[in-house]
Amino acid sequence: IFTGLRRSEGITYEEIGIHSREEFEKFYRESFNELSGFVHSGHVKMDSSSIRLTKEGIDISNKIMALFV
Q1: CB 31 within 8 A of CB 67
Q2: Reported confidence tier of residue 24, pLDDT bands at 50, 70, 90
């Protein structure tokens, strides 16, 4: 995830062995509330198949990616 988020297209859930956004939310439940804050602030885009940083999110990418370490 860490390196995948550095790509402009982000990373698909399938690439990390997860089959849906719901499964992603469950797997990362401990950090999902904080991640949701980044989604609501416009730093992260999530859809049914992928997650990626926005242009604004790139500026704070280390803070976002730290959720997955």
Answers
A1: yes
A2: very high
**Total residue count of the chain as it appears in this document:** 69
DSSP 19-30: -SHHHHHHHTHH
| Residue 4, token pair as written in the block | 């995948």
CA torsion through residues 25, 6, 9, 64, sign? positive
| Residue 12: per-residue pLDDT | 96
Average pLDDT, integer, range 30-42: 95
Judge whether 27 and 10 are in contact, CB under 8 Å.
Answer: no
Q: How far apart are alpha carbons 69 and 67 in whole angstroms? A: 6
